[in-house]
Design a protein that fits this description.
The protein is of the alpha/beta class and 323 residues long. Helix content is 38%, strand content 15%. The protein has 12 helices and 8 strands. It has an 8-stranded mixed beta sheet, sandwiched between helices. It is globular.
Length: 323
């Protein structure tokens, strides 16, 4: 074998080997991590379900409403909704597994089907027989999965800028990459680096709003704090792994309960064109598009969203004792 051919062969072998070994030899970024309960407010409560601890808030009396946050969020996103809706409802806001102040088990199933099972387990723990589910973005997908898997438990669903209508090829590729140990380790290092760089971590946050001024320093801090709790990085890796099951596919056609879609007209994350998928596949679904709102209309147009939810629930058939 000629010297040049040998050098090429050695390079072909050495480069992949170095990339596979390097992430295990590189120093880990260190962060001051905290236990979730250290960050809890007086409004926070915790319950053990399915082998992990879920954080939730509850307020008011009346027919139950359950508020389900979206990706990279928590109960704090509903800060303009809980108290108002609680005037005539028993309102629960939950942190899904891996997010907010809920537990982040390293070996957990973070598929949205699993999140739907956990939500049903939460309802059982709260002795809720039937409820209206309000899901934002990823939480809308969880609401649909729950309504399909447990139709007897769901009176109706309100989907606020819901995800799940389309497939994002890069997410599918990332989910597959997490099955390869060296790539998983590279992602871990990348996430740890991002956590050490707040500007990088928050770069896209204002993009979700029609008016970026609505992302106040207090809200930004409330969203960021859970990122520095034990297990967050590993949970995010597992969630990325499980995004291959995030698309709804044909499950929307199996929704049996009434459905209301609320969409921010200027949503750059999940555009209003995605509403056509839900209107086509969920029988009887209605759509309301709110102007001057981005991906978070329940924050930017809270009064209108609360009114629409209240009117939707009022139109449902009278519940029996739901709790």
């Amino acid at each position: 074998m000629k010297t040049r051919q040998l050098a090429k062969l050695m390079t072909t072998i050495a480069v992949p080997a170095a990339l596979a070994i390097a992430p295990y030899l590189m120093p880990r970024w260190r962060h001051d991590l905290r236990a979730p309960r250290e960050l809890a407010s007086p409004d926070d409560r915790f319950v053990e379900i399915d082998g992990f601890t879920m954080r939730y808030q509850v307020k008011g009396e009346g027919p139950p409403l359950i508020l389900i946050h979206g990706f990279a969020s928590s109960v704090v996103t509903w800060y303009r909704n809980i108290a108002d809706l609680a005037r005539d409802h028993r309102v629960y806001a939950v942190d899904l597994k891996g997010w907010g102040l809920s537990d982040k088990p390293s070996d957990g199933d973070y598929s949205l089907l699993a999140q739907a099972r956990h939500l049903r387990a939460f309802m059982s723990a709260m002795s809720i027989k039937r409820a209206v589910l309000v899901g934002h973005s990823m939480g809308g997908t969880v609401a649909v999965h729950t309504a399909v898997a447990h139709p007897e438990s769901v009176r109706g669903i309100v989907l606020v800028d819901p995800a799940g209508a389309r497939r994002f090829p890069y997410l599918w590729l990332m989910s597959r990459a997490m099955d390869v140990p060296p790539l998983r380790q590279w992602m871990r290092l990348g996430m740890e680096y991002a956590l050490a760089n707040e500007a990088l971590l928050t770069y896209n946050m204002p993009r979700a709003y029609y008016d970026p001024a609505n992302l106040t320093p207090a809200m930004k801090r409330a969203l960021l704090e859970p990122f520095y709790t034990h297990g967050f990085v590993e949970a995010l890796i597992n969630l990325t792994r499980d995004t291959r099951t995030s698309r709804l596919n044909g499950r929307t056609q199996q929704v049996q309960c009434p459905a209301l879609l609320i969409w921010g007209e200027h949503d750059p994350v999940v555009p209003t064109s995605d509403a056509a998928y839900f209107l086509e596949h969920i029988r009887g679904a209605r759509l309301v598009i709110l102007s001057e709102a981005g991906h978070l209309p329940h924050e930017e147009r809270a009064g209108d969203v609360n009114r629409l939810i209240r009117e939707f629930v009022a139109e449902l058939e009278e519940p029996e004792t739901d709790k």
